[in-house]
Specification:
about 375 residues; Butyryl-Coa Dehydrogenase, subunit A, domain 1; 10 strands; 4-stranded mixed sheet; Butyryl-CoA Dehydrogenase, subunit A, domain 2; 4-stranded antiparallel sheet
């Protein structure tokens, strides 16, 4: 495992850092929060012009032809600035699976707009009636040359902006993945608000006709598992940026805030908590890099990704709680920026499985590996 960044990767990270730093300010975020829109269209257009929204789009469709390592760098910078753009939805939930499982025609139809026109994609993987995204209750039946879908999805990011949403559904052949137009008349979108204030969507499918199948009929569970693994890594990468920036701001605050004539950062209790948080951030960064490298190298990454997601859930929460506590009362002021890092960390912690669920899955995986080795 080589953690040396290539010149291209360094350039991508610096470009992302510069764009987010230039475009995302506390004042801009307050403006968006008060408007209720959340989505920063100007920032999204700037990221698209720089090619950062299409990093994982194949070069044949005008993208960068890169992978999860490069995406992790950009997502970390998004987390550092709590930037309200559908980067995870478009790049990880949408573009990556279409690039990996789609036909040439599907790649051209759905990925070209991402590269050329700041297009948005998403996936509908969450259902209240099923905690396992690979086993949806939404169903689809063949009708003529297409399929008719019925069901209900929740917490669909950027559904109102997306050109297409990936929707897994049960069919006679098994779970199948469909590309659905969220603007179809048979689709009803109802606004929901996530922990970090992002408007997400309840997506009601009432006999919506879909002709575009991603992969083969019956391959949907495999595709969903593939997506969720990369989405968990992406959330952990965002959490690195969230946690590191929360501590940077906290370190600055405790050097300026004084009690008894001294900066509070000189008090032993404060210093120890800050030191523990720094260790958590660096440990999280290490496991995220390990998981991203394994995926990029085509190696089995299930345990590594689960480890990264568990650290994102547990260490991420410890860090932002430390940031809140060391800021004192001002840490709870929604007009002050530090509260956003707590909200984002909570969203990253719970989406696609919290700490206990992730740890249980990791344990089951390790037990299965041990049994397989014993039987070999």
């Amino acid at each position: 495992m080589d953690f040396e960044w290539t010149e291209e990767q360094e350039s991508i990270r610096e470009l992302a850092r510069q764009i987010f730093a230039d475009r995302v300010s506390h004042e801009r975020l307050l403006e968006l929060e008060r408007s209720g829109e959340w989505f920063d269209a100007e920032l999204w257009s700037e990221l698209a012009r720089a090619g950062l929204t299409a990093l994982a789009v194949p070069e044949q469709q005008g993208g960068g032809g890169l992978g999860v390592l490069e995406l992790a760098l950009v997502l970390e910078e998004q987390g550092r600035h709590t930037a309200p753009v559908p980067l995870l939805a478009t790049t990880v939930l949408g573009a990556l699976p279409i690039a990996a499982f789609g036909s040439d025609a599907q790649r051209e139809r759905w990925l070209r707009p991402v590269a050329d026109a700041a297009g948005v994609l998403s996936a509908a993987l969450v259902e209240y009636a099923s905690s396992d995204p690979t086993r949806p209750r939404t169903s689809a039946k063949r009708e003529g040359d297409g399929w008719r879908l019925d069901g209900e999805k929740h917490c669909v990011s950027a559904a109102h902006l997306a050109g297409a949403v990936l929707v897994p559904a049960r069919t006679a052949e098994g779970v199948t993945m469909f590309l659905v137009d969220p603007k179809a008349k048979e689709v009803t979108l109802e606004r929901q608000i996530a922990s970090h204030r992002e408007p997400q969507w309840r997506m009601q499918l009432s006999g919506v006709l879909a002709e575009d199948v991603l992969g083969a009929p019956g391959q949907g569970s495999e595709i969903v598992a593939w997506i969720v693994e990369r989405a968990a890594l992406a959330l952990a990468a965002i959490q690195v940026g969230v946690a590191e920036e929360a501590m940077r701001r906290t370190a600055l605050y405790v050097t300026e805030r004084k009690q008894f004539g001294k900066p509070i950062g000189t008090f032993q209790g404060v210093a120890l908590r800050a030191a523990d948080a720094w260790i958590d951030v660096e440990a999280l960064r290490g496991v995220v890099l390990q998981a991203a490298w394994r995926i990029a190298a085509g190696r089995d990454a299930q345990a590594a990704v689960a480890t990264a997601k568990w650290w994102a859930a547990t260490a991420g929460q410890r860090v932002v709680l430390t940031a809140q506590h060391l800021h004192g009362g001002i840490g709870s002021d929604i007009e002050y920026p530090i509260h956003r890092y707590f909200l984002w960390a909570k969203q990253n912690e719970l989406l696609f499985g919290g700490a206990n669920q992730t740890l249980a899955a990791l344990g089951a995986h390790l037990v299965g590996d041990a049994q397989a080795q014993a039987e070999a």
